[in-house]
């Protein structure tokens, strides 16, 4: 294929191909990279959503502080935004492709259906999740829960208060007793301590201390009770004002109170009763919980919003991931279909060279593609075959049209209904028909009724045997003979009508008849003339020898022998005339002034017949042509003689018609000279007009019928054409004949061009016939 392409161009082509291939590869690579990146983003988005869910629900070790919540939700939102961006990119690509690419609409619809289907679960999830959060919060913050929590605290506090009340009254009692023995404190410390211990143990207090205002321990009720821990100075200060001050329970790990001791310089009594540590812990926790609970209630809307946001983001992530998956799946599913639709569109527009990817998938669509490819290849092969057959047919048609328009024979194609479907130029000319537009589609028997019979015969004939025939067509211009051949166009199944070939054989027929007559004439002349001389001699001898001896009825004898001798002489002359026609001398061609030839013939009549007006119309300048002067003079003389006789005949039947006229015209038309004799006689007979040129065809009583036969022979010898027609109708005259001889100026003794053309035409017809049959 590249044989004719220079090497450097070839190298250029392969470089361009390589660049295109690398561009295609790069595009494929880019596509794959985009897919994997998108898939990574989708997986990361789903993972982050799940992580957010776990973190916000406290299912991980990460505590959902404000920052953590904000950042996880932020990451989620970013992922959702990226996926939406990816989807947007793909949708824009799809929308763009939808306008120009086949099947993009289908792609778009499938992707839309996927997205729609994905939308439902995502929205449902978001709605359900939000509603259930709401309900959870409602339950969590219901009044029952609140009252349970509050009651728990109240119970704990009541317990503590009661314990506090008990210890206060115990403290007052112990203080009263100690104040009574206040003097002992300075005087007898040991007695005081005993008093103090008994007062304390009497009230089953686990421990009591006497302290000063600085918290310094002055005396203790027992050594094995809880260890002393100085109360807060603020509480001591308040007790100094005279009140019984209860101590915060967590400080004392139980209930405790301080009271100023009256009667002492600076002393306070401080008693405590440890409470079950579990009660304390529970109380502590309950209080913490209450604080938390109140905080939670305070920021309930905030939590609700965060959870709703988390679920919305989760739903969005799922939705976007589903849409992306849908798009990718639609891509995978629809891409081969799109390619197929594109290919089908190309094929429908006539491009059968459409390219297919070689690797077809093994699914149904792959099989469809494979079948479509096979179908396109088959179509292409068939179309190529049809095209080549068509071009071959076209070539044949052109050839046949050229042949048909070139041949001189007429060719007519007739369909089975008998209408003309084709006619060549020669056919139109020969039949004198208008242009082919006027006859195509017309029934042949309407256009040329004379063909009817031969066509019928041809239709009945088998294909292998063409029908031959001869028909005569009579038109205003004259009568023409045609040799016709009818061939039937038929194969085993159908009938295609017939083909008619025909040629004008008028001249040929006449020539054949003339030559046949010449032959007959020669034989008859020969056969008749032979016995004539002995008959004549015998008659003369009888007259000479017995003339003198016959006395009786001698007159009759003389008359009879004379009649014999005279009639034998007449027969001899007739036979001479006969044979002179039969032995027409060969023409001797010489350059002559045709004007002289014509004048010579007409002058004889002008001089001898004054009752007829002989007119001569000739060019002024010489008209030199190759001809036999004697023969041509004889021909013109015959024509003028016939014209004169026709005028005579007319005058005989129309005595008042006046002087007749015979006009002889000589013209030079297109290298041919035309001698035309027009008279005002009876005119040519309508029937069998063409046979007038045959020997012995005459309508005159005294005529031999050889005149026109001789004129025809002479015209043929000069390569010319003899035409018999009616005289042109004028105002004064509507009768008469017009006989014309048209002869080529330089014919010489050669064949005429027309003869040659006819031979060639027949050869062409035969060639075309054989071509068709091949
Ligand atoms: N000018 C004409 N006008 C009318 N009829 C003509 C004319 N010329 C020829 N014919 C007809 O053609 C016939 C044949 O003519 P042709 O010259 O061959 O023979 P003829 O004239 O009859 O006899 P011949 O010429 O031997 O005396 C004539 O009988 C006549 O009917
Ligand atoms: Mg004549």
Automatic annotation (TrEMBL):
Keywords: ATP-binding, Cell membrane, Kinase, Membrane, Nucleotide-binding, Phosphoprotein, Transferase, Transmembrane, Transmembrane helix, Two-component regulatory system. GO terms for cellular component: plasma membrane. One of its GO terms (molecular function) is phosphorelay sensor kinase activity. Its EC number is 2.7.13.3. Signal peptide: none annotated. Coiled coil: none annotated. Pfam families: HAMP, HATPase_c, HisKA, NtrY_N, PAS. Residues 331-384 form the HAMP domain. Residues 523-747 form the Histidine kinase domain. Residues 396-437 form the PAS domain. Its main location: membrane. It is a multi-pass membrane protein. The chain crosses the membrane at residues 35-56, 68-89, 110-133, 305-330. It is found in: Cell membrane. GO terms for biological process: regulation of DNA-templated transcription. It catalyses: ATP + protein L-histidine = ADP + protein N-phospho-L-histidine. PANTHER family: PEROXIDE STRESS-ACTIVATED HISTIDINE KINASE MAK3, SENSOR HISTIDINE KINASE. This is histidine kinase. It comes from Rhodomicrobium vannielii (strain ATCC 17100 / DSM 162 / LMG 4299 / NCIMB 10020 / ATH 3.1.1).
């Amino acid at each position: 294929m590249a044989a004719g392409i220079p090497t450097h161009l070839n190298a250029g082509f392969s470089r361009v191909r390589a660049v295109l291939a690398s561009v295609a590869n790069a595009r494929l690579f880019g596509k794959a990279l985009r897919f994997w990146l998108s898939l990574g983003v989708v997986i990361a988005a789903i993972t982050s959503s799940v992580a957010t869910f776990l973190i916000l629900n406290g299912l991980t070790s990460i505590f959902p502080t404000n920052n953590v919540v904000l950042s996880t939700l932020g990451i989620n939102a970013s992922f959702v935004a990226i996926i939406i961006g990816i989807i947007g990119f793909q949708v824009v690509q799809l929308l763009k492709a939808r306008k120009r690419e086949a099947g993009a609409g289908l792609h778009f619809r499938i992707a839309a259906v996927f997205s729609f289907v994905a939308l439902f679960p995502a929205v449902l999830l978001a709605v359900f999740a939000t509603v259930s959060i709401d309900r959870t919060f409602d339950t969590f913050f219901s009044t029952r829960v609140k009252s349970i929590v509050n009651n728990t605290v109240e119970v704990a506090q009541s317990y503590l208060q009661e314990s506090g009340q008990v210890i206060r009254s115990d403290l007052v009692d112990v203080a009263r007793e100690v104040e009574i023995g206040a003097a002992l404190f300075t005087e007898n410390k040991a007695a005081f301590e005993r008093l103090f211990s008994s007062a304390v143990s009497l009230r089953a207090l686990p421990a009591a201390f006497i302290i000063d205002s600085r918290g310094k321990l002055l005396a203790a009720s027992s050594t094995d009770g809880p260890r002393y821990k100085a109360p807060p100075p603020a509480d001591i200060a308040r007790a100094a004002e005279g009140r019984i001050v209860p101590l915060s329970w967590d400080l004392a790990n139980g209930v405790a109170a301080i009271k100023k001791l009256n009667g002492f310089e600076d002393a306070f009594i401080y008693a405590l009763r440890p409470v079950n540590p579990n009660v304390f812990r529970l109380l502590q926790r309950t209080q913490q919980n209450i604080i938390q609970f109140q905080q939670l209630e305070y920021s309930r809307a905030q939590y609700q919003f965060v959870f709703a946001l988390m679920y919305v983001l989760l739903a969005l992530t799922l939705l976007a991931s589903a849409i992306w998956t849908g798009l990718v799946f639609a891509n995978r599913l629809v891409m081969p279909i799109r390619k197929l639709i594109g290919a089908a569109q190309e094929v429908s527009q006539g491009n059968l060279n459409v390219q297919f990817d070689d690797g077809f998938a093994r699914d149904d669509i792959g099989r469809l593609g494979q079948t479509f490819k096979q179908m396109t290849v088959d179509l292409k092969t068939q179309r190529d075959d049809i095209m080549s057959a068509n071009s071959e047919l076209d070539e044949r048609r052109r050839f046949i049209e050229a042949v048909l328009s070139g041949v001189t024979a007429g060719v007519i194609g007739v369909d089975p209904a008998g209408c003309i479907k084709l006619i060549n130029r020669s056919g139109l000319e020969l039949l004198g028909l208008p242009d082919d537009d006027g006859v195509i589609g017309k029934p042949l028997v309407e256009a040329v009724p004379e063909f009817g019979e031969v066509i019928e015969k041809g239709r009945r004939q088998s294909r292998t045997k063409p029908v031959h025939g001869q028909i005569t067509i009579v038109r205003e211009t004259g009568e023409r003979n045609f040799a016709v051949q009818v061939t039937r166009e038929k194969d085993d199944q159908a009938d295609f009508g017939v083909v008619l070939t025909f040629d004008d054989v008028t001249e040929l027929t006449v020539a054949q008849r003339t030559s046949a007559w010449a032959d007959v004439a020669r034989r008859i002349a020969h056969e008749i003339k032979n016995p004539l001389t002995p008959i004549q001699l015998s008659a003369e001898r009888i007259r000479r020898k017995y003339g003198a001896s016959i006395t009786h009825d001698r007159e009759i004898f003389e008359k009879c022998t004379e009649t014999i001798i005279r009639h034998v002489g007449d027969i001899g002359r007739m036979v001479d005339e006969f044979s002179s026609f039969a032995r027409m001398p060969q023409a001797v061609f010489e350059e002559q002034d045709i004007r002289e030839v014509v004048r010579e013939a007409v002058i004889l009549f002008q001089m001898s017949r004054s009752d007829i007006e002989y007119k001569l119309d000739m060019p002024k300048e010489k008209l030199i042509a190759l001809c036999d002067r004697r023969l041509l003079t004889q021909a013109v003389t015959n024509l003028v003689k016939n014209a004169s006789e026709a005028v005579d005949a007319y005058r005989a039947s129309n005595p008042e018609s006046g002087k007749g006229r015979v006009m002889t015209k000589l013209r030079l038309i297109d290298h041919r000279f035309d001698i035309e004799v027009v008279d005002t006689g009876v005119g040519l007979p309508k029937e069998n007009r063409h046979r007038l040129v045959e020997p012995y065809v005459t309508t005159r009583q005294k005529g031999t019928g050889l005149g026109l036969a001789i004129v025809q022979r002479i015209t043929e010898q000069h390569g010319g054409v003899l035409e018999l027609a009616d005289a042109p109708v004028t105002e004064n005259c509507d009768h008469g004949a017009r006989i014309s001889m048209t002869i080529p100026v330089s014919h010489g003794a050669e064949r005429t061009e027309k003869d040659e053309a006819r031979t060639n035409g027949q050869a062409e017809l035969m060639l075309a016939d054989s071509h068709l049959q091949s």
